[in-house]
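User: Can you predict the 3D structure of Methyltransferase domain-containing protein? Sequence below.
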Amino acid sequence: MPKTLQQQIQTFYDASSGLWEQVWGEHMHHGYYGPAGTERKERRQAQIDLIEELLHWGGVSKATAILDVGCGIGGSSLYLAEKFGAAATGITLSPVQARRATERAAAAGLGDRTQFQVADALKMPFADGRFDLVWSMESGEHMPDKLQFLKECHRVLKPGGTFLMATWCHRPINESPLTQEEQAHLEKIYRVYRLPYVISLAEYEAIAHNLGYQNLRTADWSPAVAPFWDEVVRSAISPAAVVGLLRAGWGTMQAALSMGLMQSGYRRGLVRFGVLAGVKE
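Assistant: Sure. Here are the predicted structure tokens for Methyltransferase domain-containing protein:
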């Protein structure tokens, strides 16, 4: 039987997360290189800077109960829990990631106020209004139903709580639809990174508006994050990375060999990095 999308995502991250942590660190997302992408900085610092920039841009200066949707190995969850002195919950489709995040939390002395579990973001196992910050750092692109994803994030927010999302998008299509060649480029990215599809930032904003999110803000940070792929490609040729890729298997190796798809996607303006902030009334 062919694997479902969820099973494909789980398998991909079960296999690749250990290598990513070994070579690229605990934050499994882009880095921030200044508004124009011209600031030179160490890759892991750039990833932390992306977290801080998103918090600042979204106007979040405190939180007590945080949900990290698509938590990876707990990079954002642990950072935010420590920064705000908050309780943080992370969900992922990968048991390997959830287990490693739990280990990392214990090692950081945060095991008493963080928890990580395998759960589906489209039907979260949480009561309404549980969290005052719902954080989604590059997980929206994996969601096969964008409407249901934003609906669930809204449901679990407390009144007055904030939703902050950063996600892969494609270029705006209000003036011209995607060409066949552009769609073919995206399809290659979907196959490699186990994505159902991506949408434009304007489409995300429309969905959020219709769901009742207030104080909506969006921004395109593509120039700020695009240099990250150049950094990752350079580091992928290190001996440790090469050995790790061979051990991780073909799926992870294929993703590494296909990083140029993201580089060229950013260069041509097809791949975009969108951020969105909204508040539950």
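Residues 5-24 form the longest helix (20 residues). Strands lie at 65-69, 87-92, 114-118, 131-137, 157-170, 214-220, 271-279.
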